[in-house]
Design brief:
Radius of gyration: 26 Å
Largest sheet: none
Distance between the termini: 43 Å
Number of helices: 5
Oligomer: single chain
Shape: elongated
Number of domains: 2
Structural class: mainly alpha
Strand content: under 5%
Helix content: 55-70%
């Protein structure tokens, strides 16, 4: 609650953020990702005396999505996993439908079930491939971001800078 990202940052932290070369750095996520020691200072934010915030719902949404996209590949992984789950479920239902049709072929009506099962199965296949394409795009995006592998806080027992 009331976490704004407002803070006092030292030169070392700001230099580390610059190494990320990100035009829209998500400071809240980078504070944790970089891993420097941090100290929280208790602060009570007073109510605004005049006017109101210009940060609209869409600004908050944009900020949240920037943070979400910059910090995780989870949605891509969920797409692939849900595609596999849906494909497996559709295949099992289709197999059950086929067995039922073979056993009770003389009393079984055709209906829309095969079309619906097929639609779910091919939707699952599309979801799987969309997720795989998303994984490739995520990998390319990770390489393009050019994040530093390690950010050194300090060097100990080194004679010269390398």
């Amino acid at each position: 609650r009331n976490f704004t990202g407002l803070g006092l940052y030292d030169r070392q932290f700001l230099d580390a953020i610059r190494k990320y070369n990100d035009p829209y750095p998500f400071i809240r996520g980078l504070i944790i990702e970089i891993g420097f020691n941090r100290v929280e200072v208790p602060y009570t934010q007073e109510k605004r005396k005049y006017g109101k915030s210009s940060f609209s719902f869409f600004s908050y949404y944009d900020y949240a999505m920037t943070g979400f996209v910059n910090q995780t590949k989870l949605p891509l992984r969920i797409a692939v996993l849900s595609g596999f789950i849906l494909a497996t479920f559709s295949f099992m239902v289709a197999l059950g439908y086929f067995i039922y049709k073979v056993l009770y072929w003389d009393t079984f009506t055709v209906g829309l079930a095969p079309l619906v099962i097929g639609m779910f199965f091919f939707s699952a296949i599309q979801l799987i491939f969309t997720g795989i394409i998303g994984e490739y795009l995520g990998a390319v995006w990770t390489q393009v971001k050019n994040k530093p592998l390690v950010i050194e806080e300090e060097r100990i027992n080194f004679d010269h800078e390398d």
